[in-house]
Amino acid sequence: MPMAPVLPDELKERLKMWVEDGGILILGPMSGFRSEYWTAYKNHALGDFGIWTGIEVDTRIPIDPYNKAHASVLKIKSDYAENQAEASLWSEAISSENGMVKAKYVTGMHDEKAAIIENSIGKGKVVYLGADPGYDIMKSLYLYYASEVGIKPLASGDKDVVVVERARGKKESLFVINLTNEPRQITLKKPFKEMMIGEDKGSNSLELKPFEVLFGTVN
Length: 219
Prior knowledge:
The chain has 219 residues and is mainly β. The protein has 2 domains: 9-148, Class I glutamine amidotransferase (GATase) domain (Rossmann fold, 3-Layer(aba) Sandwich), CATH 3.40.50.880; 155-218, Golgi alpha-mannosidase II (Immunoglobulin-like), CATH 2.60.40.1180. It is built from 3 helices and 15 strands. The protein has helices spanning 9-20, 48-53, 135-148, and strands at residues 24-27, 56-62, 73-76, 85-86, 90-95, 100-106, 114-121, 124-129, 155-157, 161-168, 171-178, 184-188, 192-194, 205-208, 213-218. The strands form 4 sheets. The protein has a 6-stranded mixed beta sheet, with helices on one face. Strands 10-11-15-13 form a 4-stranded antiparallel beta sheet, with no helix packed on it. Strands 9-12-14 form a 3-stranded antiparallel beta sheet, with no helix packed on it. The chain is globular, with a radius of gyration of 20 Å. The two termini are 33 Å apart.
């Protein structure tokens, strides 16, 4: 879920049931920190959301992008990333009695405080991010947790390309969309046959023109 400041009670209950049944919920900073009336919670920064996730926000400060001397840096301690990265948006120091610390801040007001915590709930997990760790770490993090539930990427290569799987009879089909005005190159897991203009690419590698949209089947 993105940074969602308001989470209705019904949605929170559905998320709780989904996680307990085996889902992995990844939350951005300041998720659910306001009620549906936009009021602040008195006892917990995240209200009852913080109670059932087992993850609490101890302190919260904005990160000034123009004052690098006081900026926080994330030091990732996990299997999904090795390098440090500069945190952005907000810096929340988080804690948990039973959760695993997956990242800490380095420098800044939250030096050595936890920045990412994973907590097991029922059959599933909640992963709370106290800051935006940047594109590279987010990508590694998503791939890491997706692999835990057997989800594999459809392609690899340049960023800003969307690959969407669609059912087409008994054959697998894909939409491939270049979201930029620059050429992009990706490699699909299977050979691709373009259907809209009848061009057989004959390979896994695709060279995409600016804003190009392809639709085809994979073998």
